[in-house]
Amino acid sequence: MKVGVPKEVKDKEFRVAITPTMVRGFVAKGHEVHIETSAGDAIGFTDEMYSDAGAIIEPTAKSLWNSSELILKVKEPQKSEFPLMHEGQVLFCYLHLAPDLEQTQQLINQNVIAIAYETVTDRNGRLPLLTPMSEIAGRLATQSGAWALQKANGGRGLLLGGVPGVKPAEVLIIGGGIVGTNAAQMAIGMGADVTIVDRSLDRLRELDAIYRGRLKTLYSSDQIIEQLLQHVDLVVGAVLIPGGAAPKLINRNMLKLMKKGSVIVDVAVDQGGMAETTKPTTHSDPVYIVDDVVHYCVSNMPGAAPRHATKALTNATYPFAIALADKGYRKALLENTHLRNGLNVFKGRVTNEPVAKALGFDYISPKTVLEADLVSH
Is 295 a catalytic residue? Predict the structure, then answer.
């Protein structure tokens, strides 16, 4: 199979969807790997390294997309890439379609097979291709929040851990999953006063047992969140509905309860955000202020640590990517229910139920469209 890896074009996105080691794996199995020139330069993966591993270096994005049957990316296709997609092409990357009608419509119009990293599952019902980026995003959320709290960046002028004789900043983390846990780990390590809210009592018990009093846990409700917002300095939004739009847990009126210069870091921005006032920002221009509250809503947060992020991501994606290349998309998706759960759009049809519900499309199950496609071929 002809596998293509374009250079990411999202603002300050330096990750790449394949490493030279992965290229060797694909080539050893008889596949042809095309890499857009300078795709990995920013993180030390040069064209020469890819070429030495057996890749074909493409001079332009257009030539790369034209020559590839399977496209491996990190972030969702950007507007400049929409015209480059072609019918029957398999796209394997993060998509986050629930809040993104334009991208979803483009994928439908182009009749591509779009498989989303973030909805691929494992035997335990977890999201193995989202987990490594959630770990990084959670840790960066605390670092970014600490940065945004500095007065020069619009914040209250606080250190998360305070100093001797001065109490530390108060941090509220909404969601006790992978992002929330990693954000808490960093915040506790920096000496902050940390509270996590979640609606899973089992998860709250686990966190309480792990941190043994260094972390406060509360059952989440609108009332509890409203009470906490009046006191905290940093809020990390870490909620997730797999494939679906994030619930709006902080509305515009709640911002008025918060201190001037307090900070919201909304890691859920990829799925529309957990705050009503969330809108995507970039690493070039990461913050904005609404009602005196600083919002940090960078939609590709792990891109700030692209070396670690690329290695962590490709470790997780490789087994699925090589299966798609070895078996072709029909056999790979029909044989593996976990990979099949990643199928979001298939030749003009929406095949992820939360995405269809969020955007108002008719839903058809992945297995149904794949079986029909198999018969027609």
Answer: no
Determine contact, residues 57/4, Cβ cutoff 8 Å: no
The CATH number of the domain where 199 resides is what?
A: 3.40.50.720
Site of tokens 């999201």: 127
Backbone angles phi, psi at 261, to 5 degrees: 85, 0
Alpha helices in the chain (DSSP H): 20-28, 47-52, 61-66, 101-109, 131-148, 178-189, 201-211, 222-229, 252-255, 306-335, 337-340, 353-359, 366-376
Q: How confident is the model at residue 242 (pLDDT cuts 50, 70, 90)?
A: confident
The string of pLDDT tens digits covering residues 69-102 is 999 999 999 999 999 999 999 999 999 999 999 9
Domain count for the chain: 2
Active site residue 11: no
Q: Are residues 44 and 88 in the same domain?
A: yes
d(CA 128, CA 118): 8
Catalytic residue among 31, 34, 96, 295: 96
% of the chain at pLDDT higher than 90: 97
Among 240, 119, 126, 80, smallest CA distance to 174 is for: 240
Give pTM, 2 decimals: 0.92
Q: CA–CA separation, 290 vs 153, rounded Å?
A: 14
From 34, 193, 270, 295, active-site residue: 270
Q: List the domain range (segments joined by +) for residue 187.
A: 133-304
